[in-house]
Every structure is written in structure tokens, then in C-alpha cells.
Specification:
It is a single chain. With 237 residues, the protein is of the alpha/beta class. It folds into 2 domains: 68-182, Restriction Endonuclease, CATH 3.40.91; 184-237, no CATH class. The protein is 35% helix and 18% strand. The protein has helices at 68-83, 120-132, 145-164, 172-181, 213-236; strands spanning 87-94, 97-105, 108-114, 137-141, 167-170, 195-199, 202-206. The strands form 2 sheets. Strands 1-2-3-4-5 form a 5-stranded mixed sheet, sandwiched between helices.
């Protein structure tokens, strides 16, 4: 007979126990409160107030509106023209703007535009403005001869030779020389009062003849024609 011990099933191998995973220890971190930053007090006395616009300086009469060189040229030509009997006005107002310098003598008027740093297009508009007012002569004055030539070409190209014939281009020295070359015409005031002179110890009374408005206009036209003739002969030469 077999022994019962011989038929006993072998005992199972012992299972290895897994090591228990350590429990997570959650550290409780208390939130750190950020201290509130207080804004510094505003000093009302130190607040910046808006800067008021500085008004443009008001130039004294006769000083012009350009730069120093522009004003110096205006003043120089004005003084030279006044010595020749011209009435001279700086920044003369006209219906469509103003003229740098306006000269007038014996019914003959000259509009002077002085160019220093402005563009050729700007000076062309100045010339056209003066021609629209029908000045007898428009003088473009600049110390730079190439600039004068550029303005002349622009005027001739846009306005044609007829309008261009009324425009002259000068340096300041040349323009003053041109003024000196004009015939000095003096207007004798008309008076109806008799004049008394002494001749050989005796009083001689003469009554001046008065001119009618038509005669005065004719005399004025003759003066202007004479000046235009002188100008034409200068251009031809």
C-alpha cells in the first residue's frame, strides 16, 4: 500500500509580497499673500499743464515776412528806389495776395518778387499772380543766376512769350542798375493859382493853364510809353 504522504501535492511556492508603495505626502503650502503696493500720492502742484501755443511774432511795419536775407534785399532795393523818387511799399497787398516789394513812379508800377530758398513752382505762381493784376513790370530778383534762369524757363513754358516779355530777371545789383537807367520823369503839379515872379525889379504875374482830365490821361500815357520804349531798347541790346 502506498503511503498517503507520497501522494501529497507539493506545497505552493510562497508568493513574494510587493512592497507597499509609500504614500504620497502632500505638503500643504499655504499661499503667500502679495503685499499691496500703494500708489504714491499725486502732488497736484507738480502736475504738467498743457503748454499754451506761442503766438507768432508780429513784425514791425516794413520788415517783410521772409528770412534775414529776404528782408535785407527788400530793404536795400526799397531804399535805392526811394532815392530815385519811387514810392516803395514792402508786402503790398493786392487782390490775389501780396507782393514782396511794390514800386511806383509817374504811373509806372513794378512788382518785385524776391527769391531766396523757395521752390521754382512757388516763384512761378508769384509771377503769374502779379501778371493777373496787370502790373507794367514784374521783376524776379535773386542772387543766384541759375535759379533766375529756371524761373524764366518755367514762366515762358507755361505763359508764353507775350506774358514773359513783361517779366525781368535780375540780381539785386542788376535791378538797382536797371532802376537807375529809367528816364527820370518829374510830374509838375497843376495849379490854378497865379504865380508871381520878379523880373528886372518888376513883378510879373503868370496864370497857370489847367489841364482837363483827358489831357492828364494823355500826358500819363506818354510817360508810360516813354518808359516802355526805354525798356524795349534795353532788352534788344
Amino acid at each position: 500500500m502506498f503511503r498517503a504522504a507520497e501522494f501529497e501535492s507539493p506545497s505552493p511556492e510562497p508568493r513574494l509580497k510587493r512592497a507597499a508603495s509609500p504614500k504620497r505626502v502632500e505638503s500643504e503650502v499655504e499661499p503667500v499673500a502679495t503685499p499691496a503696493v500703494e500708489a504714491p500720492p499725486v502732488d497736484k502742484a507738480a502736475t504738467i499743464e498743457p503748454v499754451a501755443e506761442v503766438p507768432k511774432p508780429v513784425l514791425p511795419p516794413g520788415e517783410g515776412i521772409g528770412g534775414a536775407q529776404h528782408q535785407a534785399t527788400q530793404k536795400r532795393i526799397k531804399e535805392a528806389a526811394e532815392k530815385l523818387g519811387f514810392l516803395a511799399v514792402i508786402e503790398k497787398q493786392i487782390p490775389n495776395g501780396s507782393v514782396d516789394l511794390w514800386l511806383q513812379r509817374d504811373g509806372f508800377s513794378v512788382a518785385c518778387e524776391i527769391s531766396v530758398t523757395t521752390t521754382i513752382d512757388h516763384e512761378f505762381r508769384n509771377v503769374r499772380k502779379c501778371l493777373e493784376v496787370d502790373f507794367a513790370k514784374v521783376a524776379v530778383i535773386s542772387s543766384k543766376s541759375p535759379r533766375l534762369e529756371q524761373i524764366r524757363e518755367a514762366v515762358l513754358a507755361a505763359l508764353g512769350p507775350d506774358a514773359g516779355a513783361r517779366v525781368g530777371y535780375y540780381t539785386p545789383d542788376d535791378f538797382i542798375a536797371w532802376l537807375n537807367s529809367l528816364p527820370a520823369i518829374t510830374t509838375v503839379p497843376v495849379s490854378n493859382e497865379p504865380t508871381v515872379t520878379m523880373r528886372r525889379g518888376r513883378k510879373v504875374t503868370r496864370k497857370a493853364s489847367s489841364l482837363t482830365p483827358e489831357e492828364r490821361k494823355q500826358k500819363e500815357a506818354e510817360r508810360i510809353a516813354l518808359i516802355a520804349e526805354v525798356m524795349g531798347s534795353q532788352r534788344a541790346s
